[in-house]
Design goal:
The protein is α/β, with parallel strands linked by helices. It has a single domain, classed as Rossmann fold (3-Layer(aba) Sandwich). Helices cover about 35% and strands about 15% of the residues. It has a seven-stranded parallel sheet. A three-stranded antiparallel sheet has the order 4-8-7. Strand 2, helix 2 and strand 3 form a beta-alpha-beta unit. Helix 1 packs across helix 2. The two termini are about 20 Å apart.
């Protein structure tokens, strides 16, 4: 696990985008795992800028998203398909048929999640997975208490997650209470993982994920067991890490080595 600590979320997002660009340069047919929410928006802007500048291309890439609200149509302005279209897919050259988001309107969610997992495996597995982190330390919609071996499934959201997401809806009552989500076990199969964390409200979660015990009560802590995971944090999100100076020193060299390879 490498912890990259930057002064701002913009700097952290730019460095994360450099890892994405390095992957695309080496493997144009890369399989990307993507996240939604406000955290990765700046990363996606940099990916779009790099594509527009001709630095990278996503024409041969494929993507699978982490999750989707149950009951929301792809055209709903708070669905994650809509989010991805507006914040990334419409701004890069990836064919729409190569982008995959769970179907929140699936009549049989068990068939939907089974087919989703099978499609990822058929594509060769995810090369690079982008993650955010919830204020309680969850990744995707793997709420506290989720099995660290969990697969893509139907999940019920905690009151805290519903509260956190209410700012995106006209009223709190509109926030879905269930979602389809990749499991922790599914996420852990990605060959590389990039987690973004910004702001003081994420500091406790980052501390638990990085320096706490591995536990289903902070599902991001499972990343301690991943062979190639990277945290990109601003100073506020990293403020409670005991070894933050060491992490920053080590990650600087590690990131340079990756980009020079």
């Amino acid at each position: 696990m490498e912890i990259v600590i930057c002064k701002t979320k913009e700097e952290a997002s730019r460095k994360a985008a450099d890892l994405v660009a390095a992957l695309m340069a080496k493997k144009p047919k890369a399989v990307l795992g993507l996240a939604t929410g406000s955290t990765p928006v700046q990363l996606y802007k940099y990916m779009a800028q790099d594509c527009a500048a001709g630095k990278i291309s996503f024409k041969q890439a494929k993507s699978w998203n982490l999750d989707e609200y149950l009951g929301l149509a792809p055209t709903h302005d708070q669905s994650y398909r809509y989010f991805m279209d507006k914040n990334l897919f419409e701004h890069i050259d990836i064919p729409r048929k190569n982008t995959h988001v769970l179907n929140g309107l699936a009549k049989d969610w068990k068939k939907e999640v089974s087919a989703y997992e099978a499609a990822i495996k058929k594509a060769g597995g995810i090369d690079l997975q982008v993650l955010g982190i919830g204020s309680d330390g969850h990744i995707a919609f793997n709420e506290p208490g989720s099995s660290l071996a969990s697969r893509t499934r139907l999940v019920s959201l905690t009151p805290q997650t519903v509260k956190d997401n209410a700012r995106f809806f006209k009223k709190a009552a509109d926030v879905p209470k269930q979602a389809l989500s990749m499991g922790v076990g599914t996420i852990m199969e990605a060959r590389r993982i990039i987690l973004l964390a910004f702001g003081a409200n994420k500091a406790e979660a980052v501390k638990g994920a990085v320096e706490g015990g591995v536990s289903q009560f902070c599902t991001a802590s499972a990343l301690q067991m991943h062979p190639d995971s990277w945290f990109f944090c601003d100073e506020a999100a990293a403020a409670k890490l005991k070894l933050r100076k060491y992490y920053a020193w080590r990650a600087e060299e590690a990131l340079k080595a990756e980009l020079d390879a």
